[in-house]
Write a structure and sequence with these properties.
Lipocalin, mainly beta
Length: 170
């Protein structure tokens, strides 16, 4: 594989998600911690942890995802179905929520700064032909993939949020 951008997105990224209504009003805001590992061949594993100011916590494990022959990362898990690919400078994603037929999300992820340790992301939400708003995400890398404690991956089954609706996709 000749992927150049995906490897730069591994490690731990901490920041905030801000969900914005189509009229510009802030709908919700929460803190995030994303942990991403990639074996450099075919397997990409991402875990999103979210915390709200009231103490509510969610952990979404997207499982081990594979790259196809076109170097597209394929997401197909109980929560989402979609794909991601590299452009010249960005990673682009499109996906749908499994439990919300007709949903469509479009995301662009960019690295900024001299060392690519700052990530800016934007989701555009749609349901059928209705625009539902944006999610703006601002993150900084706090650990490289090599600095992630292997215990995190071992303890992951105890962290996962399963069987309950997510605040993050409302």
């Amino acid at each position: 594989m000749a992927l150049q951008i995906f490897p730069k997105h591994t490690g731990v990224w901490e920041g905030t998600y801000t969900r914005i209504e189509p009229n510009g009003d802030i709908r919700d805001k929460w803190n995030s911690k994303l942990t991403i590992r990639w074996d450099g061949d075919k397997e990409y594993h991402q875990v999103n942890e979210y915390t709200w100011d009231d103490g509510h916590y969610e952990c979404h494990d997207f499982g081990i995802c594979q790259f196809n022959e076109k170097d597209e990362l394929i997401f197909d898990n109980p929560r989402i179905k979609g794909k991601a690919w590299e452009t010249e400078n960005s990673v682009v994603l499109t996906w749908t929520y499994i439990d919300r037929p007709g949903s469509k999300l479009f995301e662009i992820i960019d690295l900024i700064g001299p060392e690519d340790k700052h990530r800016i992301r934007c989701w555009k939400w749609a349901q059928g032909d209705e625009f539902l708003g944006l999610t703006m995400i601002n993150e900084h890398q706090t650990k490289t993939q090599e600095e992630v404690d292997p215990k995190f991956w071992h303890d992951l089954p105890n962290l996962r949020t399963n069987g309950q609706p997510s605040r993050s996709d409302k």
